[in-house]
Amino acid sequence: MTSTTPPEFGAPLPAAHPSEETLKLLRLRRSTAADLLTGPGPNATELQSILSIASRVPDHRRVCPFRFIVFEGEGRAKAGEILARIFASNETETTPERVQCERARFMRAPVVVAVVSAVDRTHRTPEWEQTMTAGAVCQNMLLAASAHGYAAQWLTEWYAYDHAVLEAFGLKPGEKIAGFIYIGAAKEPPLERQRPELQAIITRFGEAG
Ligand SMILES: Cc1cc2nc3c(=O)[nH]c(=O)nc-3n(C[C@H](O)[C@H](O)[C@H](O)COP(=O)(O)O)c2cc1C
To answer: What CA–CA distances, in Å, run from 177 to 38, 106, 131, 136?
Structure first.
C-alpha cells in the first residue's frame, strides 16, 4: 500500500497521525469565495483522491448516506443552462443580466462537486446522524482539496433548495444537497474572518458557574 492508495479492508492503521503540517492546515484553512476561484482545478487523479478522502468519514452503522455528482467541463455549462432556465421561470420579473449570472454559476470553478445527502429513512441509524455524516463529507472534501493545493468553498445557494433544479440534477425523492463544493485556484489569498469567541462556547460540566 502506498500512502495514496486507500487501505484494504481490515488493514492495520495507525490510531493517530501526529503532524505539524496537518495542524497548520486545520488552524489556517480558509474558504475562498467562489467568485475568487479560477483554474487550474484538480486533475482526474487528484479529484479521485479528494473524493476518496471525502468519503472516509464517521458513519454510524455504515449506511453511506451520501453520494457525489461531479460537474466538470461541459457538465458545468449544462448545469448553468438548467439554473438559467429554472431561475427565469421562477423570477418572471428578472433581467437578462441576472439570468446570465445564473448561467455562469458553475463556471466559477473548474470543478464543482455536489455532495448529496441520501438518508435511508428505513434504517435504524437516526436521520440526524446520517445528515451529520454528509456534513462531515463536505468538510473532509475542503480539507482534502486544500492539502492537494486547491482553494475551495462549500456553498448551497438557492439552487440547492429548488425542486426543479434537484430533479434536473438527478436527485431522487428525499435526497438533499449537503453542499456544492467549488474547487479551483485562488485569484487572491483569502483574509481571516471572525471566529467564535472560544470562551463563549465552552462550559465545563460539573464546575460551579
Ligand atoms: C451548509 C453550508 C452552506 C453554505 N452556503 C453558503 C452560501 O450559499 N453562500 C455563502 O456565501 N456561504 C455559504 N456557506 C459559508 C461558506 O462556505 C464558508 O463557510 C464561509 O465563507 C466561511 O469561511 P471559512 O470556511 O473560511 O470559515 C455555507 C456553509 C455551509 C456549512
So the answer is: 23, 15, 10, 13
Distance 164 CA to ligand 1 centre (A): 23
> From ligand 1's centre to the CA of 181, what distance in Å?
10
- Cα 151 to Cα 29: distance, rounded to the nearest angstrom: 9
Atom of ligand 1 nearest to the CA of 157: 8
- Let me know: does 107 contact 77? Beta carbons within 8 Å: yes
The domain in which residue 172 lies consists of: 31-72+108-188
Q: Which residues touch 112 (CB under 8 Å, ≥6 apart)?
A: 70, 71, 72, 76, 79, 106, 180, 181, 182, 183
**Mean pLDDT, consecutive 10-residue segments, the chain of 209 residues?**
82 98 98 98 98 98 98 98 98 96 98 98 98 98 98 98 98 98 98 97 89
**Can you name the residues that pair with 183 across neighbouring β-strands?**
111, 152
Give the H/E segment covering residue 176.
strand 176-186
Number of domain units in the chain: 1
